[in-house]
């Protein structure tokens, strides 16, 4: 997927009620970074989860909520609003709003817009698994598809209510891919993608921190959130790759179409990576702890028993170096490492690339003032035998998208 299909386009985004409404804020950011204008519409239920202020702040435009607003009707009107966009996107699309649309009801702004539009409509359903599987919902979806509506998702997964099954709204990256396809006249991609530039390729990605236990309740760790690694796994899957994501302990949702392996320690991560081979490319994004406590006690260390005045450390295996220096018949064709540095970023990163033996190293400055470690944005420089390429501060999703496309080009 490239930004070309989105640049200069306008999406009318209708956000209906449901906990998945928070993902629509991320969707807006992704669309905006790719040059797509967004006009937001909130239903009454949607406004229970996100506010007009947050939607308007991200879109840079007024967020519309009321069908009977005299000012809005005088300035633009719901008919013009419904037709000024290139595509109407409903995310999340609740069972209620889809039922209204399927039956031609128009008792609020969102349902009126959907009835009045002359543009294609893309729905990203989100609801409880029982609601999704109910015959009434399935009848309504069949009607909407018969009327020409497009769909992306839902995904299988754990619900906010605790149940598991189909009903989770597609991730923002998948919705953006569907929007791009719809605007370009292509078929909406579903997970897994079978015709992307990484189709037939196996990409191994590591993400997050490792936790090195000292006792049953304490461990050594770092501040990695896993966001960049998860975004890379998602972006590679969106290009058709079979993706194995080896993840340390993080609080992130598994990307759709990705095989995630959960680990805790560096030694567990190395074994999972070796077991996942062969792979065409290994993207080692995890912030692996360099050291672990030499001894892990089976009980909680108590202060009154003498406590612990010093911790003896043992060196952890070097996962990037191990994978990069495998024999040719086992080594991935392209090994990509990451160098999170706080000083002399490029100097340290290039030295690391040569020392480890990887093909590319992605360098970034994670000193406290940057907000990159644990944040949603990143600024990176790719170092390779061909030289350096710097990308200015942008979203981690955008970094992942560009890196996935660069990997696809290199493997081609």
TrEMBL record:
<feature type="active site" description="Proton donor">
    <location>
        <position position="161"/>
    </location>
</feature>
<dbReference type="Pfam" id="PF02441">
    <property type="entry name" value="Flavoprotein"/>
</dbReference>
<dbReference type="GO" id="GO:0071513">
    <property type="term" value="C:phosphopantothenoylcysteine decarboxylase complex"/>
</dbReference>
<comment type="pathway">
    <text>Cofactor biosynthesis; coenzyme A biosynthesis; CoA from (R)-pantothenate: step 3/5.</text>
</comment>
<dbReference type="Pfam" id="PF04127">
    <property type="entry name" value="DFP"/>
</dbReference>
<keyword id="KW-0456">Lyase</keyword>
<comment type="function">
    <text>Catalyzes two sequential steps in the biosynthesis of coenzyme A. In the first step cysteine is conjugated to 4'-phosphopantothenate to form 4-phosphopantothenoylcysteine. In the second step the latter compound is decarboxylated to form 4'-phosphopantotheine.</text>
</comment>
<dbReference type="GO" id="GO:0046872">
    <property type="term" value="F:metal ion binding"/>
</dbReference>
<keyword id="KW-0288">FMN</keyword>
<feature type="binding site">
    <location>
        <position position="290"/>
    </location>
    <ligand>
        <name>CTP</name>
    </ligand>
</feature>
<feature type="binding site">
    <location>
        <position position="338"/>
    </location>
    <ligand>
        <name>CTP</name>
    </ligand>
</feature>
<dbReference type="GO" id="GO:0004633">
    <property type="term" value="F:phosphopantothenoylcysteine decarboxylase activity"/>
</dbReference>
<feature type="binding site">
    <location>
        <position position="356"/>
    </location>
    <ligand>
        <name>CTP</name>
    </ligand>
</feature>
<feature type="binding site">
    <location>
        <position position="352"/>
    </location>
    <ligand>
        <name>CTP</name>
    </ligand>
</feature>
<keyword id="KW-0479">Metal-binding</keyword>
<feature type="region of interest" description="Phosphopantothenoylcysteine decarboxylase">
    <location>
        <begin position="1"/>
        <end position="202"/>
    </location>
</feature>
<dbReference type="InterPro" id="IPR035929">
    <property type="entry name" value="CoaB-like_sf"/>
</dbReference>
<dbReference type="GO" id="GO:0010181">
    <property type="term" value="F:FMN binding"/>
</dbReference>
<protein>
    <recommendedName>
        <fullName>Coenzyme A biosynthesis bifunctional protein CoaBC</fullName>
        <ecNumber>4.1.1.36</ecNumber>
        <ecNumber>6.3.2.5</ecNumber>
    </recommendedName>
</protein>
<dbReference type="InterPro" id="IPR005252">
    <property type="entry name" value="CoaBC"/>
</dbReference>
<feature type="binding site">
    <location>
        <position position="300"/>
    </location>
    <ligand>
        <name>CTP</name>
    </ligand>
</feature>
<comment type="similarity">
    <text>In the N-terminal section; belongs to the HFCD (homo-oligomeric flavin containing Cys decarboxylase) superfamily.</text>
</comment>
<dbReference type="InterPro" id="IPR036551">
    <property type="entry name" value="Flavin_trans-like"/>
</dbReference>
<keyword id="KW-0511">Multifunctional enzyme</keyword>
<keyword id="KW-0285">Flavoprotein</keyword>
<feature type="binding site">
    <location>
        <begin position="317"/>
        <end position="320"/>
    </location>
    <ligand>
        <name>CTP</name>
    </ligand>
</feature>
<feature type="domain" description="DNA/pantothenate metabolism flavoprotein C-terminal">
    <location>
        <begin position="198"/>
        <end position="409"/>
    </location>
</feature>
<comment type="function">
    <text>Catalyzes two steps in the biosynthesis of coenzyme A. In the first step cysteine is conjugated to 4'-phosphopantothenate to form 4-phosphopantothenoylcysteine, in the latter compound is decarboxylated to form 4'-phosphopantotheine.</text>
</comment>
<dbReference type="InterPro" id="IPR003382">
    <property type="entry name" value="Flavoprotein"/>
</dbReference>
<dbReference type="GO" id="GO:0015937">
    <property type="term" value="P:coenzyme A biosynthetic process"/>
</dbReference>
<dbReference type="GO" id="GO:0004632">
    <property type="term" value="F:phosphopantothenate--cysteine ligase activity"/>
</dbReference>
<feature type="region of interest" description="Phosphopantothenate--cysteine ligase">
    <location>
        <begin position="203"/>
        <end position="412"/>
    </location>
</feature>
<keyword id="KW-0460">Magnesium</keyword>
<dbReference type="InterPro" id="IPR007085">
    <property type="entry name" value="DNA/pantothenate-metab_flavo_C"/>
</dbReference>
<comment type="similarity">
    <text>In the C-terminal section; belongs to the PPC synthetase family.</text>
</comment>
<keyword id="KW-0436">Ligase</keyword>
<comment type="pathway">
    <text>Cofactor biosynthesis; coenzyme A biosynthesis; CoA from (R)-pantothenate: step 2/5.</text>
</comment>
<dbReference type="GO" id="GO:0015941">
    <property type="term" value="P:pantothenate catabolic process"/>
</dbReference>
<keyword id="KW-0210">Decarboxylase</keyword>
<feature type="domain" description="Flavoprotein">
    <location>
        <begin position="9"/>
        <end position="181"/>
    </location>
</feature>
